[in-house]
């Protein structure tokens, strides 16, 4: 008895079998891997596929790149085409915001998304090849280059490059980031340019100083994470001797002219400055002193601050004091303690008086200065050294008061009558300082 299964199913002609397999998308004899990797995009010609990409946001394209290695390769090819470059490499850097787009985002956010796209597309490539590909993609954008923009102060190009680079390298290990820095350093020929500005007369290459400042701040130091900023700032400074490190730090973070953006070298020498002019330097010093900057010791940072105070010439002591206050308690105490340990009591006392003056002018609590003096007094190894410092402190107050009084009596006045104001502030500062000492002394005596 024959099987009913064979007789109940009519035979299907081979020609129809071939047609049905073509309709279902399974072509005999062809590798099925491209189909599974491209999915429905398999049926589209490459030109149509690229046209579809023009309707997707950069974030959507970035998500699409993670679907498969095959699609990622197609996206890499698309980015390299002229149409892909026009679509993705926006160059409207001289307007703060983009025209209305589907993302509705600024040009900075656009390049942040582009950084993520290229990060995902090049995920499987070695670091060197990733950098070469990224450079090839971005090389046509002139505003990404150190000397590429004719109006760098009004350009977002370097900032866009910075956020792009920040996203691209996020999560990379330190060795890879070293390679990124070396790649950029060589690409921009920064070693020779930095050598020019740190060895020449301050201000003799003003345009180059400005370009280096904008490139370092916009591209390398644009991140929000302290660890990243400490890493990049260390890479910028460490190759140079201490004297050049101080000069370079001033170029990158020092005060600049509001008119043309050039570094103002005489700001710390000609007269007392304000907190705004010193904040950038103070923040950089705090960054190097923090736990994130592993390659810097406390002695390194103190030496750098000491060297900074004579760039390009010796600063006014008031500006030194204001920088220390802005740099924070730890750095301030370490700096003062180093002078106490090295037997520089007269210089220490004078600096302490100016710190008291800055507390008065900038409305800091005077008890901070008294407590700082107490901590410094504990550094001295003998009572004689401590008493000698206190005597030097009172002598410094008296000498400064006499100098300022003499200036007032001599009629040395300017438009702001600064000599009289300085005398007024110093007298108030001395009174407030000694008042806090009396409060502390009377408080301790009453409790005993």
UniProtKB/TrEMBL annotation:
Compositional bias segments (type: Basic residues): 15-25
Entries under PROSITE patterns matching the protein: FBOX (PS50181)
Domain F-box: 38-88
Region of interest called Disordered, as start-end residue ranges on this chain: 1-36
Cross-referenced Pfam families: ARM_FBXO47, F-box
Stated name of the protein: FBX47 protein
Organism: Certhia brachydactyla (short-toed tree-creeper)
Gene from which the chain derives: Fbxo47
